[in-house]
Design brief:
By secondary structure, this protein is α/β, with parallel strands linked by helices. Helices cover 35% and strands 16% of the residues. It has one domain: Phosphoglycerate mutase-like (Rossmann fold). The radius of gyration is 17 Å and the shape is globular.
Length: 231
């Protein structure tokens, strides 16, 4: 049964500076490079050998995927999908948390509670969910078509948050994106788990066991379980 592991990118220069990024394309910091290598080694240590590595097209995710792929022995081309990008945060891009709080306190408070919000001047929550869920569906279909057992997808904190919500994870109070949640949730249509391998800092991995048939799947972002798509 295929598994889809979803990983947040390593620290970027804008992460280090405490800035909201959205679609801004900051590269990894020196610490981020080390984090990506450490995460890849941790996955290899516990036996993860991805048959497919996917990522968003933004530099912080793509570079994380490149380093992780090298550490896990993955030598095929990366599957780069623009749909795996972070939510376009519009007017928040490039601002500090304090600056956002001064202008949009209610929206930031909701986001801190682990809830999606419509980004002012950017992408609505509904648009964001539709985009990344379609992208993960493409990754899931690709790993099923190739017959591989494990796919690793490097994406962004907002996608992780939205994916947890779509899979029915309990709400949590946290500062985005350095928050953690754990536990199993299962049902007739599959199972998921959030997991932190050793030495991966604040990166949760989401393990998804897809239903046996049909192989393709889609996600719905309103608190429901994953729904298998028509064959």
């Amino acid at each position: 049964m295929p598994r889809l592991l979803v990983l947040r990118h390593a620290q970027s220069l804008w992460n280090a500076g405490g800035l909201f990024q959205g679609w801004s394309d900051a590269p990894l910091s020196e610490l981020g490079e080390a984090q990506a290598a450490r995460a890849g080694r941790a996955l290899a240590t516990v036996g993860v050998r991805p048959g497919l590595v996917a990522c968003s097209d933004l530099a912080r995710a793509r570079r994380t995927a490149e380093v992780l792929a090298a550490e896990t022995g993955y030598d095929k081309p990366l599957v780069v999908d623009v749909g795996l990008r972070e939510q376009d945060l519009g007017d928040w891009n490039g601002l500090t948390r304090r600056e956002v709080e001064e202008r949009w306190p209610a929206e930031l408070a909701e986001r801190r509670r682990g809830r999606l919000v419509d980004a002012p001047g950017g992408e609505s929550a509904a648009q964001f969910v539709a985009r990344w869920s379609a992208a993960l569906g493409r990754v899931g279909a690709a790993v099923c078509e190739t017959g591989e057992e494990v796919a690793v997808t490097v994406t962004h904190g907002g996608v992780m948050l939205a994916l947890e919500q779509a899979l029915g994870a309990p709400g949590r109070e946290c500062a985005i994106p350095t928050c953690r949640v754990g536990g199993w949730r299962s049902g007739a249509r599959g199972a998921w788990r959030t997991w932190w391998p050793p030495s991966t800092s604040n990166w949760p991995l989401l393990t998804w066991k897809t239903p046996p048939a049909p192989c393709n799947f889609s996600l719905h972002g309103s608190g429901g379980h994953p729904q298998p798509s028509p064959a």
